[in-house]
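Quality-control log, excerpt.
Job 1 of 2 completed; input and output follow.
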Amino acid sequence: MRNITDLQGTFTLNNGVEMPYFGLGVYLSKDGNEVISAVKDALEHGYRHIDTASIYENENGVGQAIEESSVPREDIFVVSKVWNSDQGYDSTLKAFDATLERLGLDYLDLYLIHWPKGELSKETWKAMERLYQEKRVRAIGVSNFLQHHLENLLDAAEIVPMVNQMEFHPYLVQQELIDFCNKKDIQYEAWSPMMQGNIFGIELLKEMAAKYNKTVAQLVLRWDLQKGVITIPKSSKKERIVANADIFDFELSETDMEALDKLDRGKRFGPDPDNFDF
């Protein structure tokens, strides 16, 4: 198990960059006051990793919150993603410029390809390699790439992705994909760790959470980290942002880790990377 210490602890990416293993996701947080408040509350509470994307249409608010926060820019790990309609070499470079402008930043810490688009993603990746080589982004990676997508990309890549951000929760573990990423030194990251709220109805999780005197959400987020998976639970409510991060004063036993792993049923709550139409 990797060393998990506190809210500002990091995992080291394959290029030596330290990425905070716990962050705030802002998917569905409305641009303006909602996302500004969420990001400021998170930073104030000690979060140092903020995950957005151009398709979320809230990069302006995220940037404003970072600017108004008392936390120095270099202490915040900022992530965004290139959307499908912007994939391709030139259009990715343009999309990156637009993202930086909306965020009001002069570099990103991590830029991801949001979804696999076959051969087009190879062109996108070439653009991302250029952005990385020009030091406009500290790390590059992908999101929603299954093993065959990764293998296809690696055929043409000069740089191995540093991160693969996937739907990951107790009903969708994809251990073989995690093992493949670990073998290639690609950091695994979870989106939708709460199964869109569906974790709260699972009896085993309720019983286990009670045993550790924690909430179901805290139990699952701790499991993520002990699996070596970076996690970015999303919330715009201050009390939940604070509660989600209260996971550094307990540790799941190996038996309980295995029991959580066994809940896996290959069930997705989000789109299937092999079958989506956007």
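Job 2 of 2 completed; input and output follow.
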Amino acid sequence: MYFGIIALFLFIIILIVKSCKRPKNFPPGPLFLPIVGSWYTIPARKAEDEIHRWRKKYGNIIGHKIGNQYVVFVSGFEEVISALKNKNFQNRFQSKLLRSRTFNRNLGFFFADGEQWDELRRFTLHYMSQFFHSRLEEAIHKEITNFFSTIQSGVISEVKMTLSIYTEISSM
């Protein structure tokens, strides 16, 4: 009987030590505690001050563990740009809750991931840029028409006033 209790106690101790250990090649960061990880260090208010202290202590890439999920905070211009360009960081976070809400599939725009996300992103960017260019083209055509009608009418006016529509459009 004592052997079973001692074995269970050792098993729990091993699980606790293993859950607090940082994985190989994981960035430095606050200490992991059992069950909560390093969640206790994330402030509810004025998080930017704490992140600034972490940057001084750990660098621009900081490793955290929130519950049983490993999380990496990236700050600094060069680090953020290289992370955004890295194909390994292009996927979205997937949890059991999100998967259960979408019937274990990638549904819609907000829950898409992988190839479906890439396709939706390309589609959206393509049609949004076409929409913007068509509006810009219409505005330029209208501006040129107004400009030439002003010239043909023989009315003398300042060019600044004649090109006012363009400045409104370019500030959009």
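Post-run check on job 2. The CA atoms of residues 37 and 65 lie 5 Å apart.
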